[in-house]
Design a protein that fits this description.
The structure is a homodimer.
Chain A: H1 9-21, E1 30-31, H2 33-40, H3 44-56, E2 60-63, E3 67-70, H4 75-98, H5 102-120, H6 124-142, H7 145-165, H8 175-186, H9 190-206, H10 220-224
Antiparallel strand pairs in A: 1-3, 2-3
The first copy, chain A, binds a DNA duplex through α3.
DNA sequence: ACCCATATAATTGTCTACAATAATGCTCTC
DNA sequence: GAGAGCATTATTGTAGACAATTATATGGGT
């Protein structure tokens, strides 16, 4: 007797997010409501909620009376996102160094440990979830709803950008750099922690192809232009 | 024969936003769906959409199965918002100096002129809309959906913060400082434009009561604590 | 008099049926 | 055969009815 378990809006968001991050969903494809509803076996209303949440996170664009499409972030968008991330994460680390408890540090270290494990076993899905989760955890510990929400947004957007613009197949945002940041925070060395964070973000950005070179795209006009 | 004109979701958002900015809606009050639906004479479904939009902009908090309440931003929240604003607006101005057309400058100057007019005639509602609108216009001209959306969010939050923490009755964000910024952009003097913008934001922030002094609040527990 | 359980009312959450809109393919005309 | 207009189909948008949840009021027990 297996009870029919219903999937929540949040779970739909996460599944779509992961599909985009893992490049199974390409930019430009339309996410039709009924299609998703049947895939997840939920009502169309719930799918709609998930879609507006995904739009808020910058993963899809909703065109009125047309539908929802996976976003195609431009190179400039990517640079803007990283610019804002540097500022926001700098602030997060700053505030985290001011006040952090032993329990918080334990949570951070445990998280990094999980990341290491996922990396060793090459579990792609977990690696994606955890590497974003680390940055989110930092914001969560700070305790500011605003910073947390902003980070959520930025990480979602970064996932999309990474999916579109990363050249090699290795996933960035490795656990080692995270570990260093945690230890700097543990020592209360704000200056060092901030420096490490900025370096980390620059490293992530540097692994992307953000040159203006034309890339394969679903945009017919762009693809067929000479 | 007046046709019954229906109010859109976006208009509901704006009306609520202005009510909050003008202090007619105090932090903590509940926005009941049916109540709003009858006020605006629309379906409850549309009100719900407006509420999730307001939540995204950080103006209301939605507690599941409880309802939507006007947010009560903390002093730390306020500081975080201004911190992020400084970074984002810096970026906006930076990009605007790189490339701006004659038409864009005209739009900016016209906007500032409207601000002046509203200030002279002491039209509170217009002053609020236009002073936020100036910053939004900058982001719009840059042409980045990401920066535009982020600014939208930040301005909405700033409105709430200003409503809660401003001490005098004068509305900040005056048109003179805006005008100076526009002229710096017109000259393509990025450095000066950025400096003026940062000064402007600091000025706005400085007119707020962001000391840790306890303030009157709707939170009974906090108000009655000794 | 106070506390807890229960019943009632108020409020939010969800689903389904229907309406509006936009894209597609067809036909008729030139 | 090409193109415009029209009909069809696919898809999204909206509203209203019902379900689930939470807050409030009531009454009985201690």
């Amino acid at each position: 007797m297996t009870e029919r378990i219903e999937i929540s809006t949040q779970q739909i968001v996460e599944r779509v997010w992961l599909s985009i991050a893992e490049r199974r969903l390409r930019p430009g494809v339309q996410l039709k409501e009924e299609q998703l509803a049947s895939i997840f076996d939920v009502s169309r209303a719930r799918v709609r909620q998930a879609l507006v949440a995904l739009e808020r996170d910058g993963l899809v664009t909703i065109i009125p009376n047309r539908g929802a499409f996976v976003c195609q972030p431009s190179v400039d968008d990517a640079k803007d996102v990283f610019h804002v991330r540097r500022c926001v994460e700098r602030r997060v680390v700053e505030r985290l160094c001011e006040a952090n408890s032993k329990a918080d540090l334990t949570r951070l270290r445990n998280h990094v440990a999980k990341e290491r494990l996922a990396n060793e076993k090459d579990m792609t899905t977990d690696i994606i979830k955890l590497s974003g989760g680390f940055h989110l955890l930092l914001a969560e510990i700070v305790g500011s709803d605003f910073l947390f929400g902003t980070m959520r947004d930025l990480i979602a957007r970064t996932s999309l950008i990474t999916a579109v613009y990363r050249n090699n197949n290795r996933f960035n945002c490795g656990p080692d750099e995270h570990a260093e940041i945690v230890e700097a925070i543990a020592k209360g060395d704000a200056e060092k922690a901030i420096r490490l964070m900025e370096h980390h973000l620059e490293h992530v950005e540097s692994e992307l192809d953000l040159n203006e070179i034309r890339r394969p795209s679903n945009d017919l006009r762009a693809a067929l232009a000479f």
